[in-house]
Amino acid sequence: MPDLLTVSGLETRFVTPAATVYAVNGVSFSMQEGEVLGIVGESGCGKSVAMMSILRLIPTPPGEIVQGQALYDGVDLLKMSESEIRSVRGSQIAMIFQDPMTSLNPVLTVGKQVAEPLVTHKGMNWKEAMLKAADLLRLVGIYDANAHLGDYPHQFSGGMRQRVMIAMALACSPKILIADEPTTALDVTIQAQIVDLVRRLRDEFGSAIIWITHDLGVVAGLAQRIAVMYGGRIIEQGSVDTLFENPQHPYTIGLLGSLPRLDETGRRRLVSIEGAPPVLTSKPTACPFAQRCELAGEICWADNPKLTSVGVDHTAACWVDPYSKKERS
Question: Are strands 308-311 and 176-180 parallel, antiparallel or unpaired?
């Protein structure tokens, strides 16, 4: 089956008077129709910037997509004209943003905001679009939807606003849905509801999903594959089972160790990753994780490793085998 989306060598930077920030440094991945890919990493690692670059949502200036390809159905999104990429956004590739309160327009009704993509991309008139908007709100669990079409975002709770964002994203039945940490600002109960909702809608609509998160636990039951990002790069990729059972990068091992769990005594144990993420004001020439890695050797400080195969459909960018503590051959 051909890939639905193939991203190769994506690089994005931000040029400011103070410094140039090299936010994304050679991100490459692919996904197929109906697949769920988890993009995992701590804040500032480039997850959101990489996905926004694909949709050309990076403000220019100060942002600049330096190089790379993003082939969607064989067409490079990065080379499309403004009118062409606008026709893709929302209709074929949609995005659920991280903070629904700042993403929703506070002076437009919820109904109008959900209906707008249908008018823009599907050619519906406003009456048809509002009827469809009510159906979409019911689909995402907002009951008595007709009564809420005239409400404004401030009249909704955080969880309800996030459901509105999901309804907007699903309005045109996109082939790819990008969810940018959609549960971050929500309490645990609502987080679980949103994850269950997206899982159900994935099965119903058949959309491929890119789920951006800093929490491996969230994607464990949702994604088929995971890409772990650090320092603007993907440093490990593989199936969910493979990454949880046999992580091959020290950073991935650290992330898994930081998940809450119970040991044989019934106590909760948490492991932290010492140090801080790299400041990306220069393009990394060495392994960006070296300063926090107990296994770092001379080669780690001298050269930035490329993603290489470490198993079946499993790649890692690390010079050292974390278990034998020897350089990979």
Answer: unpaired
Residue 215 in tokens = 């929490």
d(CA 290, CA 215): 22
Q: Which residue has the tokens 């051959």?
A: 329
pLDDT (tens digit, 9 = 90+) per residue, 230-273?
A: 999 999 999 999 999 999 999 999 888 877 665 555 565 677 78
Dist CA 114 CA 258 (whole Å): 38
Q: From the CA atom positions of the chain, what is the Rg in Å?
A: 21
pLDDT score of 326: 86
User: Please, which residues have CB within 8 angstroms of residue 283's CB and are 6 or more apart in sequence?
Assistant: 22, 25
Q: Give the end-to-end CA distance of the chain in Å, rounded to a whole number.
A: 32
Single out the residue of 308, 329, 181 nearest to residue 249, CA to CA: 308
> Which range among 174-188, 254-268, 286-300 has the greatest average pLDDT?
286-300
pLDDT value of residue 203 = 83
Residue 101 to residue 99: CA distance in whole angstroms: 6
Q: What are phi and psi of 229, to 5 degrees?
A: -110, 145
Check: CB of residue 5 under 8 Å from CB of residue 265.
Answer: no
Neighbours of 193 (CB within 10 A): 16
What secondary structure does DSSP assign to 280-326, as a single string?
-SS--SS-TTGGG-TT--HHHHH-PPPPEEEETTEEE--SB-TTT-S
The residue behind tokens 């209906």 is: 115
For residue 235, give the 3-state DSSP assignment: strand
Tokens 């193939």 belong to 6
C-alpha dist (Å) from residue 43 to 140, 176, 202, 287, 314: 28, 23, 26, 18, 24
Alpha helices per DSSP H over the chain: 47-54, 82-88, 100-103, 110-122, 126-139, 145-148, 158-170, 188-205, 216-220, 240-245, 250-257, 298-302
- Structure confidence by residue, pLDDT tens digits, 123-169: 889 999 999 999 999 888 888 888 899 999 999 888 888 889 888 88
pTM of the model: 0.89
